[in-house]
Specification:
Length: 163
Amino acid sequence: MATVPYYKVCPECRTEHTHTSVRCADCDVELVHPDALAPEQEAPDLAPAAELPCVRVAPLPWIRALSEGLEQGGITHRVEPATPEDAPEGQNCDVFDDAQLFGLYVEEANCAAARELDGLIAVQVLPEEAPALVEGEQDACPACGAALPDTATECPECELVFG
């Protein structure tokens, strides 16, 4: 007869909780029994964060969305706790108030692709703040990538309205 573990685990952060807990307090996801978790894959070698370009400093939900997108694209990356001072030049962390911040770091060769994905996430997470959150001028729609004239206030393709 199999024994039932006396604890549950968060499938996101893998933190252990008492067996009576239902949701992870940090990730707000339903807890599972340890045997239901997929085995952890060994992370490929990646330089320390201090040696990598930072793509984004933001709260965990944003970083998690960016991380999942990068994983789907096969881009290795590192996530670590961060402060607003760790953010790349041009990123505004003031909109996050007192939220706990994390930085996402990639190798230089993957930086452009990671920043492009980050721009798409910025529009979804905080559409009213996206121009201040995304580096550089926008010459393409951040939602669909359509070319935009300099004076555009709305995307001609997806009809996204710019603040």
